[in-house]
Amino acid sequence: MNAPNQSGWKPEMTPASEDGLHNGPATVTGNRALMLEEALLFEIGRADVTGIDLPEPADDAPNRLGGLDRAEPIDLPGLTEPETVRHYTRLSRQNYGIDLGFFPLGSCTMKHNPRLNEKVARMPGFADVHPLQPRETVQGAFEVINELAHWLIALTGMHGVAMSPKAGAHGELCGILCIRAALEARGDAREVVLVPDSAHGTNPATAAFAGYRVENIPTTDEGRVDLEALKARLGPDVAAVMITNPNTCGLFERDMKKISDAVHEAGGFVYCDGANFNAIVGKVRPGDLGVDAMHINLHKTFSTPHGGGGPGSGPVVLSEALAPFGPLPYTARTADGVVHLVEEETADAFSEEHFGGVMQSFGRMTAFHGQMGMFTRALTYILSHGADGLRQVAEDAVLNANYILRSMEDLLHAPYAASGPCMHEALFGDKGFGGDLSTLDLAKSLIDEGYHPMTVYFPLVLHGAMLVEPTETESKATLDQFIAAFRSLAERANAGDEAMKQAPYYAPRRRLDETLAARKPKLAWTEPENT
Predict the structure, then answer these.
(1) I want to staple 326 with a disulfide (CB 3.0 to 4.6 A). Which of 162, 228, 479, 505 is the partner?
(2) Helix axes 476-494, 372-408, angle to 10 degrees
(3) pTM for the whole thing?
(4) Distance between CA 2 and CA 199 in Å, rounded?
(5) Which helix (H) or strand (E) holds 192?
(6) For the residues of 267-278, what is the DSSP string, one character each?
(7) What does the pLDDT look like over 17-58, one tens digit per residue?
(8) 485: how many CB neighbours lie within 10 A of its CB?
């Protein structure tokens, strides 16, 4: 978003009518200039027509369907190419994106995706590479993967890295499976994973999916893990603790080394959720804090797109104790300087050097090695910043978050504001809102101001949580405009402004009945009965 212009001029706006639309003559189409009312595909096209011309098959044409012929029409609408392109383009214009404005989405790190990354990722040698090509034709791809792996290991102070996981949650599962394999290798059947209530939300789900029983560790009044409660629960049945650092209260876990030492002494492993690595990259190495495994969301810290039009990427860095149990395949540079893709457990010089013998992999996470487009973008980002630039990323992200925290703490409940500087995100609650207004009402009102809402109702340790993350890519002018809007809405919420319960007024669609939408979603189009 741009800061307000210095002249103070703004377009004249007529008052809104009760339905939130600006007064003016009705239009035949329902469109309002460039605010286009978009019909459903089924309302644009018809199932009895097609957008292309195909010749009728000859009677003697071979049937290659093997008995899988369609038994009835597919009943999808037929559209021309212009109709199809316009439909999806118009829909895309109604969606919020990082290229349109500021995304204060705490715990998800929605930051600018540099165009340099995109330019490099689209080079033919990277964009056109295929996992089934002969290995001698993809040496450049292996070099990129291996170089990125080197940087991730160096930045985290770890011993090895699994590059194949396709997302953060996928990486979490990879790390927990490494821990399970290490425990099984020593004949240790532990069954409990401890998860602080300030951890990232996917942690307990991952542990449960891997077959562990999850137990909660409380948060102290200052928003950090209760070290004494953790120590009291450790025992021979605890396989690991999954901890997010910085945590989702926006705070750095000062006792992280003490936590790791206690867990290791009890025979367990430490899994660190790397979702918030953007706050400490270049400043703190998780390996120095005793972490055994940590996934890294390339989209959060290293500016790749969320998902990237397909699978994302969640590499997992591993300690010396867990590296031998990581997944296959992995890249390895041999003495001749050539990078190889290792797809089987082997007893060779590389295995002896890095694993102390034969690798004991738990298997594969995916069919192939990872997401080449994300690797290329992330490495481009790292090389363009360098070590000093990555350090500045963390410093600027933390500075921006503290700027928002200190600009809002007089209006919004900020229970951890006195716990020291926040890291990359600032946490607020709805305590003090007037009437029966809620966090949801403020979030919906933020849409009318032209912003995507922040993360709401997470973490669960704070009632009506609002988690705001500005990232390092936003300017002070952008933050000043956001803070002005945020303060205005906080003042209205504290005053009990009932108009906020109907927001958003200016979005393409008004507020949904979210409970009904969740419990009774309409997932298929049905033709109206009166047609």
Answers:
(1) 162
(2) 50
(3) 0.89
(4) 34
(5) strand 192-196
(6) T-EEEEEGGGGG
(7) 555 555 678 888 878 888 888 888 888 888 888 888 888 888
(8) 18
